[in-house]
Amino acid sequence: MSAKRLKVVYADDDELIRSTVTNALIEEGIEVHSCADGADVLELCGLVDPDAVLLDLNMPVIGGMEAARRLRRDGRNAALRIVAMTGQGSWELRREAMEAGFDEFLIKPAGIASLLKALDPS
After folding, report:
1. pTM of the predicted model as reported, rounded to 2 decimal places
2. Exposed, middle or buried: residue 5 (CB in 10 Å: 0-12, 13-18, 19+)?
């Protein structure tokens, strides 16, 4: 990972998973801004200018797929790394995620090494 401190916006509506992943990333030296839905992701991205976004796919209000599409439509986010992390792992869902603008597709539970590799924009 690069010497610059990585800044990540992370959304998962499952509070236990969100807390566990957030704490693991913080222990790795990553600045994490977490929330429970895609609407909050869009707001946080405008506020904190993250290097990467980690999204669950199935969330209330705005799901991960739609949040990724909206982030990609915003020209300021062309270099933003967007990673899906979901409990559902099919080739069709992976293909849909890539078409929505995700760079990586991880299946829960993803190990910390996989998360770090997926989130690193370098």
Report:
1. 0.93
2. exposed
Q: Which pLDDT does position 122 carry in this prediction?
A: 75
Fold category of 7-119 in CATH: Rossmann fold (3.40.50)
Segments making up each domain of the chain, as ranges = 7-119
DSSP one-letter string for 2-58: -SSPPEEEEE-S-HHHHHHHHHHHHHTT-EEEEESSHHHHHHHHHHH--SEEEE-SS
| Rounded Cα–Cα distance for residues 121 and 51 (Å) | 7
**Side-by-side strand order, sheet with 52-55:** 31-35, 7-11, 52-55, 81-86, 104-107
How far, in whole angstroms, is CA 13 from its chain's centroid?
12
Predicted pLDDT of residue 2: 44
Residues 6+ apart with CB under 8 A from 72: 82, 100, 101
pLDDT of residue 12: 97
